[in-house]
Amino acid sequence: MNTLVLIPSGDFGWLTKIGEKALYVYLLHGFIIQPFREFDILWYNHWYETFWFVLLSALIVILLSSRPVVALTRPLVELKWKE
Are 39 and 45 in contact (CB under 8 A)? Predict the structure, then answer.
């Protein structure tokens, strides 16, 4: 099986740090988004409310890629107990 992997040649600072934790964001974001769906908290009546969705999305990414969240969920995500 052939696999294509794209690895940047340079360091892009904080963006690289968040990208390293993309799996955590992908797997854990449902735990935050699903209550919004269940309780009908998500709203979208006007085009300018897009700003709030972008802001909420950025905050979720920052929260889920933070060091404490990664440390707490590492055993579940990576199925490793110690490094």
Answer: no
Among left, alpha and beta (phi > 0; psi -120 to 50; other), residue 13 is left
- Neighbouring CB atoms inside 10 A of 19's CB total 12
Write down the pTM of the prediction: 0.70
In tens, the pLDDT along 51-66 reads 888 898 999 999 998 9
User: Residue 10 region, left (φ>0) first, then alpha (ψ -120 to 50), else beta?
Assistant: beta
Give the residue extent of every domain in the chain.
14-78
- Burial, 33: exposed, middle or buried (Cβ in 10 Å; 0-12, 13-18, 19+)? middle
